[in-house]
């Protein structure tokens, strides 16, 4: 009986694995079309600078409005795009759209740097680097690139060289998801990064954990010693924001301020200046 049962489980597992790989292949071929079919769209999530109490930048996050499946999130298609090389077209689309949206924001009186997530494979792609340089130089756009240290590890020499090229043309480099992947102090020392984003893994439970505050505080101190500004991602509560403020964290990003939102909603959000009241609260407990 036990044998029959484990056999059934094994068969079920095979069927699932098969279905998952067909699904993946289907998504991969759909994605190639999606880019031209205008099925991708961007949402923006603001970063609030705590001391300055202003929003100086936003992060662009790509979404896929699939013809039959509906909304597909990046965690489901970015890995597929990286394997198929569609990541190049996807990222160039994201950059072009961000440049266009930055002009729209400027027309509404909002001068914001737009940060774009850059997959590791692109950091070793000389043609991608040339195309980006041309786009930035002809548009004069103010961009930032978020990269993970894990993405530098594949080919550190070309990654570091290309990041220096990006930094030289005015693109601000941010280290994303710091602490969650293969964080190497050797890379931290060499990367031309101006911002360090602490992974939400250490932030979402900041006020209910014993160790997270210690890790976050020492990371902030380390980044400051290296003359980088620190962004905490995944800030969901007033209490977390207040603690981050005391620890000297420079910027916060998270659902407390805003979820990622469409361009129209971002323009409304910026006009309402709601973040000012929220950011003012960061200091309130200590002013009282
Ligand atoms: P990421 O760059 O670390 O982005 C942060 C993720 O955390 C986003 O998920 C965002 O929606 C989510 N988030 C923001 N605030 C909070 C919060 O307060 N609490 C919680 N629990 N989550 C929060 P999203 O949009 O699903 O993106 C996932 C990942 O996909 C991104 O992680 C990024 O690595 C990747 N990604 C998104 N857009 C692109 C893109 O255009 N190109 C590439 N290569 N990767 C992208
Ligand atoms: Mg990011
Ligand atoms: Mg991140
Ligand atoms: Mg993350």
From TrEMBL:
Residues 24-274 form the EAL domain. This is EAL domain-containing protein (Putative c-di-GMP-specific phosphodiesterase class I). The chain holds residues 155 to 442 of 450 of the full protein. It comes from the Bacteria. One of its GO terms (molecular function) is cyclic-guanylate-specific phosphodiesterase activity.
């Amino acid at each position: 009986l036990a044998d029959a049962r484990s056999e059934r489980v094994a068969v079920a597992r095979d069927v699932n694995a098969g279905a998952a790989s067909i699904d993946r292949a289907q998504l991969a071929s759909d994605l190639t079309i999606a880019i031209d079919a205008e099925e991708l769209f961007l949402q923006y999530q603001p970063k609030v600078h705590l001391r300055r109490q202003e929003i100086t930048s936003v992060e662009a996050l790509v979404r896929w409005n699939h013809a039959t499946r509906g909304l597909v999130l990046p965690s489901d298609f970015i890995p597929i795009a990286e394997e198929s090389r569609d990541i190049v077209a996807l990222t160039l689309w994201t950059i072009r759209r961000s440049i266009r949206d930055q002009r729209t924001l400027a027309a509404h009186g909002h001068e914001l740097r737009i940060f774009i997530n850059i997959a590791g494979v692109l950091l070793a792609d000389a043609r991608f680097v040339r195309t980006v340089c041309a786009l930035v130089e002809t548009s004069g756009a103010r961009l930032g690139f978020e990269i993970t240290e894990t993405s530098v590890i594949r080919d550190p020499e070309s990654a570091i060289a290309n990041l220096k090229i990006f930094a030289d043309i005015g693109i601000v480099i941010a280290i994303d998801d710091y602490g969650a992947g293969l964080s190497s102090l050797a890379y931290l020392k060499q990367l031309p990064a101006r911002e360090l984003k602490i992974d939400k893994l250490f932030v979402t439970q900041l006020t209910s954990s014993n160790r997270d505050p210690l890790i976050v505080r020492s990371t902030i101190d380390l980044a400051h010693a290296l003359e980088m500004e620190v962004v905490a991602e995944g800030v969901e509560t007033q209490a977390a924001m207040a603690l981050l403020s005391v620890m000297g964290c420079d910027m916060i990003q998270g659902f407390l301020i805003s979820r990622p939102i469409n361009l129209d909603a971002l323009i409304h959000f910026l006009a309402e200046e709601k973040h000012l009241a929220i950011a003012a609260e960061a200091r309130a407990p200590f002013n009282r």
